[in-house]
Write a structure and sequence with these properties.
With 197 residues, the chain is of the alpha+beta class. The protein is built from five helices and nine strands; from the N terminus they run ββββαααβββαββα. The protein is globular.
Amino acid sequence: MGVFSWITSDTKRSIPAWGSGRAPIPVYLLSPTGERYQETDYDGYGIFGGVDAYEMVAKWNAEHLKLIDWFKNADLEERRSLGIFLTVGSVYEDVETGQRWSVMFNFPCFEDWDIKVAPGNYGQPIGDGLPTPNALISAKRWRILDPVDVGLLKYPIKLVQSPDISYDAVAASEPCPNQGFSMTTRMRNKARQIQQL
């Protein structure tokens, strides 16, 4: 798995990932319950102040999704997977029937939210004689929805530079398109990879 990063909600700066060649900046992962997790040298793998941001998203949203018991019994990877789905995953809506679908993610709350789970992956049919998710998306029969659009994500990741900002005072942090690297650093790393071939 590669590194990933975000844009700070308050200053709109990319959070440098370790190894990017960029100077680290201190940031705070804000919690809707008031905690702040300071990180001064982000590693690129979602850990801020010793906590996993994706696991925290799962924890913050567990009550809203009626997943308190599931969260208590889930292992780290399951909790992280829920957080990843809520943060960067997709729900698909069939434009003809209105049915919502998930592909490759399956959580107990989906039944409450009337979300069906497609068996397998994007290349496998969703049922006997039915098309694949890829075919449905390509044909524009399925439209892509963000988990926030369907009400699943109530408490997103919010990263800031100012230690004095509250969770409710800022919008969700956007993913960094360069994953914490500068475009120049990414191009230089790509050139090194090509030279090594």
